[in-house]
Amino acid sequence: MKLEKCKDNPVLAPNPDVYWENLVTCNPGVIYDNGVFYMLYRAAGDDEKHVIRFGLATSTDGVHFRRASTEPVFSPSVDGYDSGCVEDPRIVKRGDEFYVTYAYRPMAPGRYWTFPHDVVLKPECSEFAPKAWADNLGNSALAVTKDFKTFRRLGRLTSPVLDDRDVILFPEKVGGKFVMMHRPKEYLGEKYCGVEYPSIWLKFSDDLLEWENKEEHLLITGRKGTWEEKIGGGAPPILTDRGWLVIYHGVGDGGLSAYKAGALLLDKDNPLKVLARTPDPILEPECPYETEGLYACCVFPTGNVVVDGTLYVYYGSADKYIGLATCRLDDLLDHLTQNCMI
Asked: What are the record keywords, sorted (predicted)?
């Protein structure tokens, strides 16, 4: 089972004439509302600090997107916790509001593709500086908007002493609770269920900002020697008649170090119960726009919607472009329930 890549890929590419997005457009949050696909995408220019912002593009067919503004719609704050960069939005709708989870750093990461993997710029600071600042940690926060033009920052979602990204909210409550998916890199070893590689965890809460004191639940962990040794959430879960469909990402070690995507099916009433999991990736880097860029051999799913029975999966490719892959929703669900049950 493979998702079919759009013949018009990449559906969004850097704009060489605009300073804040002339190098990168990738990792978009996408939602479909009242006949319009809204794409909130990660964008950056070729400046030395590599400041990362969000742009907005819209479409009526899910393939051909037009930029909605010549300026970013969401940028790092002036002097707040997310003053360095904002990255990788995921979008869910509740009522008439769109809630956006996003990763951030207190200072810009610098030209990270020129450093060893997962290394970023760090500030010069005293011994008393908090860890988040001293290590320029990637954390996650929540914002809300009604129109994708004006946003309100609601606050930090994750611990300030953890590198904790790929934070995604379920679009509906489960058992009367909000549900959050996240990937804390430091949750390793015997203390954390013997987890050997960064894994996907779930939390449940009565409040969208109160997560830090909630019990952690391991959802899935990576599989040694495979394409998914290190894993993390991808796009927001989709509720279907057969359970929660989750598209996630994985990356292997050594010669397998390409970012790919797989799928999970979770019980609709108890998302801690994994019903099915694809043993092989359903999306992987093959085309030049996926293998040649700032991070070679990378497909990174961050947005998905279902329209008229078709699943649209939007992904960053090579940390530079945005791709689209599709399938019939029922085809993927049939594959999971007929071939991948656990």
From this structure: Glycosidase, Glycosyltransferase, Hydrolase, Transferase
